[in-house]
Amino acid sequence: MEMKWLEDLLALVRNGSFSAAAADRHVTQPALSRRIRALEQWVGAPLVDRSAYPVQLTPYGQEFLGLARETVSSMQAMRTDLRQASSQAGHQVRVLTLHTLASRMVPELVAPLMRLDASLAVEIVPSVQGVESHFDELDGGGAQLLVCYSQIKPGIRMKNYERRIVAHDALIPVASRAFVEDDGNCDLQRSREVPLLRYSPFTFSASLLERLMSQIGSRLVTRAQSPLSETLKALCLRGLGVAWLPRSSVIDELQTGVLRLVGAEGFHVPVEVCAWRRTELSHRRAVCLFEDLPSLAEASEPSERV
Predict the structure, then answer these.
(1) 3-state secondary structure of 48
(2) Which of 21, 52, 85 marks a domain boundary?
(3) How many domains, in total, are found in the chain?
(4) What is the rounded CA–CA span in Å between residue 286 and residue 92?
(5) Do 162 and 275 have their domain in common?
(6) pLDDT tens per residue across span 264-305
(7) DSSP string for residues in 282-299
């Protein structure tokens, strides 16, 4: 359960409609609706009577409302106290990023800057939260910088953020050397069945690959799935199938031959890695770190092709 779900419910009660609550929460109406349904699934009971206008709570929702208000109020008060205490140390920069980028990409980006400034402290926080949650963290001060793929955007809040492209990467199909040599079911154009190590549905990496997966079609047979590329990589190294992994995360394995590319360049999905910060960010060290990150020329949206 995420606290933003409780905040969404309070906004819905306060505004009386999904559209008004979505505007209040700076998200799209479908996103807010999905989050309310996720809360209802977590609670195990319907909280909102969607047939009424203005929107009303069910008896279960009325009973749950008091706890939601108390929880949100207590958590916000505690967060304020803790952030005020930690801000006194001001030199530490909290960088929120995707699990996929936390293991190699982000450390490689910040390490040279940390060597130049011995007083700079960086906390790298991997996250599997949804897109809105990433920018909620920046808005609320839970992190100063966000490093993610360029396809992740803050929606209607775009004007509140500054971004810079800091690296280019690609999701590429790979399999272990043993799997390629022993199994042979790695031809993405001709094999009847290709064992696939897939990203879990609704994850961001899955959305990046959605069009390509549909083009390859039923020849891909799911053997395992996970929201984390590190998990898929571990399964891939054990010879269980083909996985689309960030090139930056498998450079060493490709060089040593432990992993091999399976498929032509047309099966690669290029991505740009971006850093984001609030335009009104007052954290001096974080602003300096953001400005010192590499800045690559803006590129067109990555294409997906077969």
Answers:
(1) strand
(2) 85
(3) 3
(4) 8
(5) yes
(6) 888 999 999 999 999 888 888 899 999 999 887 554 444 333
(7) --HHHHHHHHHS--PPP-
